[in-house]
Amino acid sequence: MRLDKFISNCTGLTRSQATKVIRQGRVLVNGELCKQGAQQLAAADRVALDDNELSLPGPRYLVLHKPAGYVCSSDDPEHPTVMMLLDEPALEKLNPVGRLDLDTTGLLLITDDGQWLHRITSPKHHVAKTYRVWLADPISADAAVQFAEGVLLRGEKDPTLPAELEVIAEREALLTIHEGRYHQVKRMFASLGNKVVRLHREKIGDFQLPEDLATGEYRLLTEAEKDQVQIKGK
Ligand code: URA
């Protein structure tokens, strides 16, 4: 890898900012001053910027408490994006793990590990996602049975996979699904003639949105939390 690219990857500096610090004589390669951004590095080369040795960051796994009004993408012409809530180097490498609607709040994972992202989102892996749902009308008595059997969403041929509904109050429930179709929770309730008025994701796999994570805040996942995410649930 070129020296300027390596510095950019390690620090989050843009390529031109990396070139500048190299030209300013702030970079040592194996203890020797190096002013050539194009210099190719070997795996064993040690690079220091202002006497701090640099290393490439490992994969990052973040948990964000998504507020309403933010889009789950890196670019949007109309709305702020969840990526704007992050203060991270190399932001362009990070991606939301699946999508929550603009008005949905709660647990959103963000990573630069493409394989991990795929394992959590791929329908093949059936990782459970639990939502707290508030509804316009009382939940019908047979809703749990219908969701357990699978319902047909408008415009689709295959019924939904069995899902678990736990009724909390007349218009409030926890719904656990094992796939991630477009607007799935809202469309599942629409198939029963009801309307979701508020939606909040609480859990992915066995990992619960941390209670101390305020809306709009994020932090790194611990190793144990990362493992909990992949537990499939029932
Ligand atoms: N299902 C929905 O309808 N919306 C979401 O944001 C997530 C799941």
UniProtKB/TrEMBL annotation:
Any one GO molecular function term: RNA binding
GO cellular component term, pick one: cytosol
Record's keyword terms, sorted: Isomerase, RNA-binding
UniProt superkingdom: Bacteria
Enzyme Commission number, as recorded: 5.4.99.-
RNA-binding S4 domain segment(s): 1-63
Function: Responsible for synthesis of pseudouridine from uracil-516 in 16S ribosomal RNA.
Family the UniProt entry places it in: Belongs to the pseudouridine synthase RsuA family.
NCBIfam families per UniProt: PRK10839.1, pseudouridine synthase
Entry protein name: Pseudouridine synthase
Species, as recorded: Alkalimonas amylolytica
